[in-house]
């Protein structure tokens, strides 16, 4: 994808550059959401944000 964006940039094809950036952004957001779900599922032993450990 990066190679496609780089080639389009060299040809001054702004539509392809923007489409590539949008695809990469969507992929990054989806991957972040997936990792967040996996982390929440596997890290159940950790206290949630804002909670403190009771002594």
Automatic annotation (TrEMBL):
What keywords would UniProt list here?
Answer: Membrane, Transmembrane, Transmembrane helix
Record flagged with keyword Transmembrane: yes
Which protein, by its recorded name, is this? ABC transporter permease
TM stretches of this protein:
12-35
Please tell me the species this chain comes from: Comamonas faecalis
């Amino acid at each position: 994808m990066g190679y496609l964006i780089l080639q389009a940039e060299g040809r001054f094809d702004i539509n392809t550059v923007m489409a590539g950036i949008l695809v990469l952004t969507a992929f990054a957001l989806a991957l972040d959401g997936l990792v967040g779900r996996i982390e929440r599922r596997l890290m159940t032993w950790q206290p949630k944000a804002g909670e403190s450990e009771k002594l």
